[in-house]
Amino acid sequence: MLSSTPLEARLDERARRFLASAPASRVRPKLTEFVVFGLKQGWACIFGAALLAVLMAARLWYPDGAGLARNDFLTLAAVLIQVLMVAFRLETLKELRVIILFHLVGTVMELFKTDAGSWSYEAEGFLRIGAVPLFSGFMYAAVGSYMVRVYRLFDLRFARYPRRWITAAVAGAIYVNFFSHHYIWDARWALLAAVVIVFGRCVMHFRVFRKRHRMPLLIAFLLVALFIWVAENIATWSGAWLYPSQVDGWQPVGLEKLVAWFLLMIISVVLVAWVYKPQPPAEATQDGSAPAKHTIPAVTRKLAE
After folding, report:
1. Rounded Cα distance, 205 and 157, in Å
2. Which of 55, 117, 181, 208 gives the lowest tally of CB atoms within 10 Å of its CB?
3. pTM > 0.85: yes or no
4. Tens digits of per-residue pLDDT, 251-290?
5. By three-state DSSP, how is residue 34 classified?
6. Cβ pair 207, 154 in contact under 8 A
7. 188 — alpha (psi -120 to 50), left (phi > 0) or beta?
């Protein structure tokens, strides 16, 4: 079972006290579920949100001709964010290992994709590998941070989760296709069909406050991919990187990128699931709450008291 960090436990305790003192009403349970859901999602996105804030600030206020290149500033800022996440125990060391894996997987793909002309970065700064500034890997790390944190904060369980070796094979094929489609047939649509077949029956169970909720895992993949697509529009507007269609003037990232992000979600989920083995949902009572024998994380247990 994944436990909450010390800071999350303190925040939970304060939230519990606040909710206990609030007046009772019929709308209170539903409103509480909605508010807690939003707060948890925002808390899970803290790494990515901080990185996007730095990207936008650099676009708006970083001085031209500064002694430190903007890309190098972004890299140092990303390193500082990661250090603070660990120092203030917003991420556990086990989560950090998963995030580093995301970083490495993303950087390898960045090196290839920029060389192939899929997108480009400003040619400035010293903290880079070839044409890829080192802050780019932190954008993939931000996705990894969200994935491991949401897994813990919502106590994710999965009904009919496919065998992990099958999901690993699909994820491996997706990753290879990100490279191979530049030379041979692009198999993304066949891979998309494989994802639907493999994950189509899987249902994600998650706890927000007092009750568990269910969602088809494919829908969850799509929603997260859409969220990343929105973040990608913000990042390209900030000039962090540009697609060929944006070189002569910024325009929104094409919706076709949603397919790429959807497929990338499969790689992300498999990486997290390989470290945190997906668990089946415990039996629930008729009102949707967890049975007494079911242990839930402190982040929800304290709120539910």
Report:
1. 5
2. 117
3. no
4. 999 888 899 999 998 999 998 888 788 999 976 443 444 4
5. helix
6. yes
7. alpha
